[in-house]
Amino acid sequence: MLSWNRLAYDPYLIKHNAKLQEEIVKRIKNKEQFQGARFELTVAASMIVAGFEINFEDESDRSKKHAEFIAKHPSNIQIAVEAKSRHRNGVLGFGKSSKGSGEDQTPKVAVERLINRALSKGPGYPIFVFIDVNLPYSEENPNGNPWFREMAETVEKIYKKFGPGEFPANAIFFCNDPTYQEPEIVPQGLNFWCYEVPIKNPKHPLPDPTITMRVAQAIMQRTNIPNKYPEDMA
Asked: What's the pLDDT at 99?
C-alpha cells in the first residue's frame, strides 16, 4: 500500500506542471518504461519539494545531449537532473526470473555504468545525478553495509578519471525503496533511504552549496505522506 500511496503522492506534488505529468504518466503506462519513469517521478517530486521549478529541454535540438529535465531554483540557479534506475531480474517485471532479488541480501550495487551514462550529458552547468539502486531491504547499519562502501568507492573510481575541477556532477544521490520487493518485512521507519556522495571541486560549482543539502532533505521529506491532500498544498 505504501508503494501505491507514493505512486499517487508524487504526481500530486507536481500537479501544477502539466507537461511533466503528461510525459511521465505516458511512460508509466508503458510496461517496458515503468521502472525508469517511476524513479523520474520520484526525483521530480523531490526537486519540487526542495523549491525548484521543473522544465524540459528542447529534445528536437540534436546538437547536444539532454538531461532528464532542468531544475530552476528561485535564485535563478539552473541544475541539470539525471535519474537512472538499476534493473534487476525479477523486480518490477524485469527479466525472466520468477524470484525477486529480495532472496539475496548481498547483491552488488553495480551502478558504475549508469553513473557514467549520466555524466556523459555535459549540459554546461551543475548536474545532480540520482541513482535508483533497486536493492532489497537490509538490516545492516549503513556504516557496516558493503553496499554503501561500494557506492562511495564507485564514485571515487569514476572521479579519479577526470582532471582537477573537471568532474561534471555536483552530487550523486543513491536512493532505494524496498517496499515493493519485500512488503512484509520492511520496517515502517526503514522503507526508504538516500545516500548522498558529495563531490569536491566539481566542474560547475554551486554559488550556494547548501542547495545540495536541501535536496537531500527533500528526498526524504516526500516520503512523509499526509493523511489528507489539501488542495493548496502543492
From this structure: 46
CA distances to 110, 113, 121, 202, 230 from 127, in Å: 21, 17, 9, 9, 33
Q: What is the mean pLDDT of the chain?
A: 82
Phi, psi of 151 (to 5 degrees): -60, -45
pLDDT in tens, 208-222: 989 999 999 999 888
Are 135 and 151 contacting, i.e. CB atoms less than 8 angstroms apart? no
Query: How far, in Å, CA of 223 to CA of 233, rounded?
Result: 15
Q: Could you give the C-alpha distances from 10 to 3, 88, 114, 183, 214, in angstroms and in order?
A: 11, 23, 23, 20, 18
**Alpha carbon distance 97, 150 (integer Å):** 25
Return all residues near 121 (Cβ < 8 A) that are at least 6 apart.
65, 66, 67, 80, 82, 127, 168
Buried b (16+ CB within 10 A) or exposed e, 84-98: bbbebebbbebeeee
What pTM was computed for the model? 0.86
Q: Which helix (H) or strand (E) holds 3?
A: helix 2-13
DSSP letter assigned to residue 209: T
Nearest to 118 by CA among 157, 184, 168: 168
Task: Lay out the sheet containing 127-132: strands in order across.
Answer: 53-55, 69-72, 78-85, 127-132, 169-176, 193-198
59: pLDDT strictly greater than 90: no
Rounded Cα–Cα distance for residues 85 and 63 (Å): 26
